[in-house]
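Weekend entry, working from home. Most of the wet-lab plans are on hold until the incubator is repaired, so I used the time to fold the two sequences that have been sitting in the queue since the last round of cloning. Logging both here for the record. First:
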Amino acid sequence: MELLLTAALTLAGLLASGAAILLAIPAFSLLLLTLAAGRLKEHPPTGQVGQAVPVRVAILVPAHNESIHVLPTLRCLQAQLQAGDRLLLIADNCSDDTAALARASGAEVLERQHASLRGKGYALAFGVDALRSAAPDVLIVVDADCTVSEGGIQALAQRCMQTQCPVQMLDLMLAPAGSGLRTRMLAFAWLVKNQVRPLGSYRLGRACHLMGTGMALPWDLAATARLASGHIAEDMKLGVDLAIAGRPTQFLADAQVSSEFPLDAAVARTQKARWEHGHLQTLIEELPRLLGAFVRRPRVATLALALDLVIPPLALYFLSVAVSLPLLGAGSYFATGLLPALWIALTAAVALFFAITLAWLHHARHVLSLRELLSVPLYAAWKLPVYVAYFLNRKSGWTRTARKV
């Protein structure tokens, strides 16, 4: 009996250590990507490009009940169109004046109505079908609440044409002037996810994830992509599919697409909850595919994407490290007298601390002060209901962000 008890305790200790290793992997992945990212301005990731070539561009703007909020986006894009380019707004299941206002602004508008097949992916597939009779060289997608930096459309189109791969420009959500700490914390977490991590994965493996807006596809990929999937994170899934097929997404850090978090913290929280639910779903579904693809045919691009995808939303992971790893370490120690799980827990916590600190130091001092950065634990606690909701009531479909008119 004593032998069986000893064996059981040893097995429990080994399982605790194994679980601690699995939970520690995202911390080391985040630290590696943050170190690889370095400083954005000192090491632009775009590299040398060839001479500009003529590119026929079509820009799709999927919109659902955006009304007047779509007009700044259209004005920004219209100012960057060149001869032969097209700008199409897809008014998807709209019940307001979005389509009429877009037409009045000079944009080409397609309207789509469907009782059950609703969502951004279906809107994009509808737009792609409309373009088949006069196909462009490059398809660009910009969300209806975003603006693109000057010259960004042509820079994106040129990179896409030259590489014949998907291209993602820097995609940021900004905290409006006067935002409270919670909103600026959201902006910091977004910056880590959409600037630091893709910059790191691109420098490591010449690949990043698609982000849904400010992205370009060569027409041959756009015409054959399975866009109408209804997946909550159809952009990330598409990027994984293309990377596995040998055409990983390139990162264009010197062009930017941006929008603002709503001033209402509750609305911002709901908006980010949907994105994070999508990320968690993609992590669960696509990480095994990426790792399997890497085993079958080792490519540094698929490994870099896996390193990025394995990282859960920042607040969720902070909570996991703060709670799960110490418990695993203590449990392993008291069961077997061994310390590996406890050391793994401490090492992961240190790696996470350095990753967050370096990301703030190199990229986000304009978003948060050092004192505010130290309140990350409070931010993580604030986000706890988001993750509880993921397991109880997962977000799906197209939910328009509430905004003040």
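Second, folded right after the first finished:
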Amino acid sequence: MSFFNNAIVTVTELMPKSVVGFFSSKYIAGESLDDGIRVVKELNAKGIFATMDVLGESVTNKAEAEDAKNKASDVLDAIVKHKLNANLSIKPTQMGLSIDEEFAYNRVTELVEKAARIDNFVRIDMEDSPYTDKTFNLFKRIFSEYKNVGVVIQAYLRRTYSDAMSLNKLGANYRLCKGIYVEPASIAYKGKQEVRDNYLRTLKEMFSSGNYVGIATHDKFLIDGAYDLIKEMNIPKDKFEFQMLLGVREDLRDKINADGYKIRVYVPFGKDWYAYSIRRLKENPQMAGHIFKSIIGIK
């Protein structure tokens, strides 16, 4: 099956941009903020929450970072104007983290301050390993002043359980995911079950410490494991939510929603959709298989 998925990725890279757009249209809201608003309204109508993300990362200069910050600010305005059940997700390198850490801190803080004024929330996404410590430092610094900010933690990294132990003491708000970036075995688990085991071990520690967790996964094994922990530990519904990517495993998404648990969907949009699509497929070939089977009608 991995050969099949990787073959789809290779073929997709050779296709015209318009064809890639057809493949990815289910998983990206569109190019404009209006597209993002439309999709979030559709999700909200089903009782599903959203987090909105203007696509783009690793900007090359401060002007690009400032533009990215302004577009993220527009998302917060749209959430208020359209009364959306949504919050904001941002990439730290999109805000200039790879250029100037202090500059990025000021950009992100401005967004978190604005979100606080409208009773909203900003999620700082996690990127690849060169930015792990820088992202945690950025989060900790802002979290010391504002509590409407959260961070992402990746279960496939060997350091993750230790990071969670440390961040739990601060009362951090998490999105716990498996992780998608290609990392060396020296710092990342490579076995499927190893990652799953570390995910559930970390989730249990987060629950034990009373932290709020966004349980971000499309893996039914992990969803079932989370259900078991929630029941065993009697975790209140206001201490967690489930999270998924737009268009992926909608059957599981709808089941979680029907089971009465809060579910939030990541809604990406923007002109950088092509780079995002190709990167996503390269980093997670299994998603390519899901997309292909969805298009041709195979469950």
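Plan for Monday: verify the second prediction. Residues 162 and 202 are 9 Å apart (CA to CA).
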